[in-house]
Amino acid sequence: MSSVNVPTLKLSTTGDAMPIVGTGLWKVPENACAESVYQAIKAGYRMFDSSSDYANEHESGKGLKRAIDEGLVKREDVFIVTKLWNTFKKAENVEPECRRQLANWQTDYFDLYLIHFPIALQYVDPATRYPPEWFADGKSGIVTERSPLHLTWPAMESLVDKKLVRNLGVCSFPGALLMDLMTYARIPPSVHQVEMHPYNVQEDQLQLCKAFDIKMMAFCSFGPASWVELDVPTVKQVDPLFTHPIITKLASKHSRTPGQILLRWATQRGFIVIPKSVKPERMAENLNSTDFDLEKEDIEEISGLDRRFRFGDPKAFDPKLSIFA
Ligand SMILES: NC(=O)c1ccc[n+]([C@@H]2O[C@H](COP(=O)([O-])OP(=O)(O)OC[C@H]3O[C@@H](n4cnc5c(N)ncnc54)[C@H](OP(=O)(O)O)[C@@H]3O)[C@@H](O)[C@H]2O)c1
């Protein structure tokens, strides 16, 4: 895999090299996504974090194909991560959904396939609505489905057996659920993706995952920044991070931007990061965040901001549904 100076981590089940900096595609507008993926590859990105729920997989695939057709990269140079949405948890729905996502991305395998949330929601026929989002009827609240994880996981494993997917992982699993999964997984998760920023440093999950040789991946590295446009009330309960005095002080100390300080803090702690931006200068800034080191006391000072504060709880969309209650 061509690395463009971004270090990699070796995944436990396959030994695959995963870049520690990629870019996330949530809220990248559909009509801008093909160009965004293409420009990201041109800028040196070799890892993308996607999901059917982001409603831009088809466009992402177009951007990747253009980069491959123009000889910028080969398919095997790019590490594609995507996720199984909550409504496809019944074992019989897993493979058709993965194949639909592969067709959208115009590829025949994903490098990493994650369970998007540790909950199962009522199936929505993709012919009716795709992506299905949170509510079965599109409006009136969460309806769960009888699809326990111990039946979904073997269907995920069969994607690996069929070479549709190389590595498996999960997102936002409470520790006890992850430990339970480890008791029966034939192919264990290689990656756990969680919300992680200075207000939620996830030290407990980091230690648990180290014990299982599961690599950790951070979403929302910039804390509230991603949630401002969604008008989530919790945004007002914390200070923005880009202007936080501790972050700006360390940015001056290391002659880096606040964004680079936040990302380096995460990668030095062992997290893989996937900052999202649609702005070329920020994409470059975020990618170039691994060629300096914070000192131990810098890392501890940022970690001292921890409040176990979470933005990405489904209760933001339905007050009855806190999966972290
Ligand atoms: N597993 C899950 O449940 C889950 C949940 C949430 C997110 N994710 C994944 O994680 C990825 C990253 O998380 P996120 O998108 O929520 O948030 P994020 O990367 O922490 O923040 C993105 C926000 O920060 C801005 N930004 C980016 N780089 C910047 C910089 N250098 N300086 C100043 N502002 C900057 C972006 O604006 P511009 O675009 O205007 O630059 C955007 O508003 C997502 O795209 C998605 O792939 C997964």
TrEMBL record:
A GO molecular-function descriptor: oxidoreductase activity
Source domain of life: Eukaryota
Catalytic residue positions: 54 (proton donor)
Binding site for substrate: 116
Residues of the NADP-dependent oxidoreductase domain: 25-305
Record site: Lowers pKa of active site Tyr: 83
InterPro entries for this protein: AKR (IPR020471), NAD(P)_OxRdtase_dom_sf (IPR036812), NADP_OxRdtase_dom (IPR023210)
Protein name: NADP-dependent oxidoreductase domain-containing protein
Organism (species): Filobasidium floriforme
